[in-house]
Amino acid sequence: MNEWQLQKGNADLRCIAIVDDVPESQYLAPEFELFRQLFEDRGIKTIITDPQALTWRNGQLIHHSDVGDTNIDIVYNRITDFDLSEPKHTALHDAYVSGDVVVTPHPRAHALQANKQHLTRLSNGEILKEWGASEADRELLSGCIPPTHNVTPQNADELWAQRKNLFFKPISGFASKAAYRGDKLTKRVWNEILQGSWGSYIAQQIVPAGHRLVNVDGVATNLKFDVRAYVVFTYYGLTDSTINRRWSRLSGTDGSTYSEPKVAAFRQACHANCALQTRH
């Protein structure tokens, strides 16, 4: 609840809205419910809602439902329109800009910390040197961030020639949507990228995935994996890993997935983090 205290001080936190477009249809809808339970366990009323059920009026963001209207204090923002520029997000955008509701994560945080455009600069040693970054910091960043370039008409021919070593990603994209491995890229799709059909793109050097040998139904299987670290403010919260076959979440033969332990661990970490935030 650190963000609430930073923006609103000691004001009472009465209601949180978990907001996404058509939330009941989202793949991560069970996660929304998990967080609703987490917040309500702490005594905070929590609503899961579509942004079109919100209005901004008289300095208050309001949720409308058949049982009545509810004033919203915090929005846990799961919308992938990161700058809230789409017309259906106008009420939320205006309430956020006016400071009448706390939004997390918010558009400014995405612009500063999650915009893929930054990778073109953070992977450029000359730019980092101009910015005054130390040699040690430049070496650290070069070891973590693959060389990344904007896709432009000027470098299009060079990037196409090198495409087998590149991965192409839309700057405003998410969840691998409209992202392409260069060795799978067709000329038709490449032309659509150059025409800006899905917005601006970056080209990033491919980094081969790590592999683990895993027993799957009694068969030793070589699977790709990644490791992710979760940090809230300056507090380390959780490290997890996902093991994939062809980049799809590994499932058991009975249709179950291996996500349950991770969800349980994540909930425990969230509880611990909430307690830590309260103590500080």
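the 2nd protein, sequnce then structure:
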Amino acid sequence: MGGIVYRIGRTATEWRYELIIFTLATALASAGLFSAFQTAITDALFRVATRPASGDVVIVQIDPRSLAAVQTWPWPRSRHAETITQLRAAGAEIIGLDIDFSSPSRPDEDAALATALTSAEGHVVLPSFVQHTERGVSEELIETNPLAMLRKHALVGNANVFAPMGKARHGSFGLFLEDGRYRPTFAALLGQKGPSAIKTFDIDFGIDSKTIPRLSVIDVLNGTFDHAAVRGKRVIVGATAIELGDYVPVPVRGVIPGVELQALIAESILQGRTLMPIGPWGALVIVALALAILRPTRSNWTFRSFGMPFAVTSAVLFAAPAFALMAFPLLVETAPALFAAGACFLSVGFRELSARARAVLRERSNGNFRRVLVNLIVEESSDGVVVADHAGRIELCNERAAVLLNATRKTLTSRQVSRFLPTFESMLHSGSAYETQRQTELSVDCDGGEVTLDVSVRRMTVPAANNGAPIRVDIYTLRDVTSQRRAEEAERRAQNERFITERAKTNFIANMSHELRTPLNAIIGFSEMMAGQLLGPLGQPQYVEFADVVAKSGYHLLALVNNILEISRLEQDAEALAIDEIAFDECAEASAEFARTSRDYKTQTITVHVGEGARRVLADKRVIKQTLANLLSNAVKFTSAQGKIAIRAWVEGSAFCFEVRDDGQGIEPALMPHLTDLFRHADHGFSRKHEGMGAGLYLVKRYIELMKGSLAFESALGKGTRVKVTLPGAAVAARAVAPIDADAA
């Protein structure tokens, strides 16, 4: 039960607007408030759904010409008798006299009319009228009939036509009198071909009354009319002259003679156009269908998306009744549905306007918040902010800008910005025509001394209010860079001093190294002479041994001095490469031989393996030899006397690769990232076993960098070290050759 209630409540919520509109339409329809609107729609439909008269109903009119010919009114009843006689003689099927015969006239005249009615043998219809016994006083109705002698041989039909809301709209087949008797209507007796269950109906005013055939009574009396015009037809005789006053207001046609209205009722019956409204239930069904189609509750409706369904639905509500009226004797009442469609439109419109209003209010609130936020940011900014309009007048500035410009905000506002700051046009720019930002520096005298300002200006175009022309503004940002510029100047001076000091140090080292090399060469030369006893025996064997130690120490010291000179040259970027095609195999053999003669050599096996295509390389010969010498020097130092050292070279595409590999003690993993650091020694500490200043691998790295190459190390403790050098684009031969495996060799 609870689930059913929940579903009903949910459905009611989803269809809340539809239910409200449907209920309102039902209430208004029940109160009859749509009557005038529906009447206007029906009248418009009659103007659209027109049709001609059938031609079976003929009006014989008492027109001004007939009145002028007879010159009396009321006419003698013998005239009406003669009219009946002429029409029956012409073959009229039935004749209706829309004339009041309830009062007696001259006996001979009444007798003449009675004789004519007798001769017509019941083919004449006379009118009766139902009216109040006393207008405005009594509600009792009485029927006024023709004279008894006249209605004895004629049909009597009620000729009353009521005009609710001021216009006659409804017809009837008959009515029940106060005494319970049924009285057919005057028009029904003329137009009905058989019995009908319909009591009342709406007259089809779409039938064009101008197409109903008409004859003048005077022509009938004179016998000067075409008998074929009335033969087999239903003829209504009545007054059309205005002076006789028998006129009735009707839709579409305005005011027409009563006889013409009776003819229209007869035509409606004869053509089967007794119009029946669909009634309130049918109208409410159409309302429900319109609401189901338009669904104002749908959340995605907007004016734009709702416009097409609304227009189509409205068009159908106007067009469908017209088609129904043309095809069937049916009046489709769409006034409540049109009201519902309009209510849907207003509902969607109200919802969208409300949403837009909320959006505007939200945007306005956000705009106010943004303005307050921007003002707060501008005021609290550590930078000065100045805004100038297109004419160069200062529109806005914060307190910081006033302080930096040594002025007040009141002094700055509305003044020309050029009095305090450079203009946008005067600043240097990159030359781009679309550049909107420029920058310069400005020195300003303030109370605390001269201040250096970094001035940047951005030219912007902001939209104007109410969709006006965009406004151009220049926004200046002022920043005090005095401390920064002083710090930069101090840093420049310090760098210059450091550069001078470094250069002096380098020059000192180079000069000292040069000064050391000269005596070292003498010491080495003389000690070698003494060790070799070139000038004769020294007498004691220890002297020879000491002389050899002096010579080796001199060589070591000379190598250190050479490394210092090499570092000094590289630090001053004084190294100029001489790239040429050189014989790598010769350089490798020479470097291996030089390593065998070094004082650290311990009888290790040094081999050279150069692959096919790797015998020659595009490189600097001195740099290649220095690189090999330094790599071999390290390998000799850290490899035992029984160890193996190998130099290998090969080509990988356009790159030339070579390596120096040993099976020595290896390198600790923690030292691997620092191998090429200057003065970093693998055997670190004061108790290290191997001499050296830690510059060899640093020089190797710098050499390889000069030739745009790369250096890679692989090492494991107790297993040895592999140093690979790759020189991109240095291969002379393009084909790749795999390196020769040392074990296979």
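The chain has five domains: 2-42+278-298+314-349, 55-270, 381-480, 488-563, 576-727. The chain has a mean pLDDT of 81.
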